[in-house]
Design goal:
Layout (H helix, E strand, L loop, with lengths): L28 H14 L7 E3 L16 H18 L7 E3 L13 H6 L1
Parallel strand pairs: 1-2
Helix pairs in contact: 1-2
Length: 116
């Protein structure tokens, strides 16, 4: 859900700079970047490997701003580049896993094709 495009009726429903904990909004990319920068600065020397669980792209629940293939690819590219920069370039293995929001069409899972 794109929660940053309109002013909510109640102030407490307004998403902050890093999103809205426990809310219905997807986290903004700046939260991902901030988290990865924090890990790089404070924990990179302690990390043996990273399991990257996916679901980088926002959920497609906002009918006024439908998600596009280009947006999905761009979000995946940005997060992959950041993961590479922070971990892979230091020799820390990254094990990626695509989430159901990281593919087009939305919520398509490869295992569904195997079952059918």
């Amino acid at each position: 859900k794109s929660c940053h495009r309109k002013t909510p009726k109640k102030k407490e429903d307004e998403a902050g700079y890093f999103g809205s904990p426990y809310g219905e909004c997807d986290s903004p990319l700046r939260l991902t970047n901030f988290t990865l920068d924090f890990l790089e600065e404070h924990w990179a020397s302690e990390i043996d490997f990273v399991i990257w669980t996916g679901d980088n792209a926002r959920h497609d629940e906002d009918h006024q701003i439908p998600r596009t293939t280009a947006e999905i690819f761009d979000t995946n590219r940005r997060v992959a580049s950041k993961m590479h920069e922070i971990f892979s370039e230091r020799g820390i293995p990254v094990v990626p896993s695509l989430g159901n929001n990281d593919v087009w069409p939305h919520v398509t899972m490869i295992f569904c094709a195997w079952v059918m």
